[in-house]
Design brief:
Distance between the termini: 15 Å
Strand content: 15-25%
Helix content: 25-40%
Number of strands: 13
Low-confidence stretches: none
Radius of gyration: 22 Å
């Protein structure tokens, strides 16, 4: 049985699938050729990340396709309900990348409060001739300890962010329509641990009280989670991080708020016009930028590969039995 990992798979995942008797193909097939390739090569399983789109055309064209797997959490690049109605199994790995995304959130937070994104642009250009000027320009950094972070979306990734924030001594406010409260566990090297229970609050309260706000919500069908009205309700000088999905944050409103200093900085891993972000976003001096790499750590990719392999082996073994 053949598996096409069109957006790649970790070596661990590939080895586990091959041990179970599957042929794993890691050839990158162009989007418009995916259906033809699947049919021509008798592929039973299609694995994707965020690059390859699995829409109705591919689902309709590939009758022999049994499983569609998404390495990661969000499945907005797959027509999930349609695929399942057509008898396909659709799987993902919701728990595998929580910590890696949460760490990237804090990478952007630290970058914003200590001006690292701008300093790293200017030091190679002016560090030799204007060192003292740059030292003065970046001398008004802030600390995260004791500050309030608002987490919009309190699923696995939001809770991982909360865990790290508590460890840093931050105050945590969370908002989620579907989660009332969650228990955050902090483990220490010697086996000791502490549990912290966090109850979610209305998003209106979160917007008013947070000094930093981070988004962890799925793609939206209608409107933004954070638009001009929500930014107006925030504290002056707030920092905003989006490592969830492009389109949940109004980038036009964000630029306006950055230019007026309503928002002090932003950290963006995802974009409205991905993979072609707006030049105003890319060039803004108060935005820390990464190219959708939230889950792109070696550890997360190993977990994703192993989890996908386990699900595929279980599903197809059940079918064979």
């Amino acid at each position: 049985m053949k598996i096409l990992a069109n957006d790649g798979i970790s070596e661990i995942g590939k080895i586990e699938l091959e041990k179970a008797g599957f042929e794993v193909i890691t050839t990158k097939v162009a989007q418009e050729q995916v259906a033809n390739y699947i049919n021509a090569n008798n592929v039973s399983v299609l694995l994707v990340r965020s690059a390859t789109k699995v829409r109705k055309d591919i689902i309709d064209a590939c009758a022999g396709l049994k499983i569609i797997g998404r390495g990661g959490v969000g499945m907005d690049n797959i027509d999930v309900d349609y695929a399942r109605a057509a008898g396909k199994h659709v799987i993902n790995t919701p728990a595998s990348s929580s910590e890696s995304v949460a760490e990237l959130v804090f990478a952007h937070l630290f970058s914003g409060i200590r001006f690292l994104h701008d300093s790293n642009r200017n030091m190679p250009l002016e560090g030799e001739t204007a060192f003292e000027m740059l030292k003065k320009a970046y001398a008004n950094g802030r600390e995260l300890r004791g500050k309030t972070i608002g987490i919009i979306g309190f699923g696995r990734i939001g809770q991982a962010v909360a865990k790290m924030a508590v460890g840093l001594g931050m105050r945590v406010i969370a908002a989620d329509k579907f989660v009332g409260k969650a228990e955050i566990r902090l483990d220490f090297y010697n086996g000791q641990f502490i549990n912290v229970e966090i109850e979610t609050e209305p998003v209106e309260d979160l917007l008013r009280h947070s000094e930093f706000i981070t988004l962890h919500v799925p793609a939206q069908e209608n409107g933004y989670v954070i638009g001009a009205a929500e930014i107006d309700a925030m504290k002056d000088g707030v920092g905003i991080i989006n490592c969830s999905r492009g389109g949940v944050l109004d980038e036009v409103a964000l630029i306006k708020a950055l230019d007026s200093n309503k928002v002090s900085f932003a950290g963006l891993d995802v974009f409205e016009n991905e993979p072609n972000p707006e030049i105003r976003i890319l060039m803004h001096p108060n935005i820390s930028l990464t190219p959708h790499i939230g889950a792109a750590t070696l550890e997360a990719q190993d977990r994703i590969g192993s989890e996908l392999a386990a699900q595929i082996i279980s599903l197809l073994k059940t079918q064979q039995d």
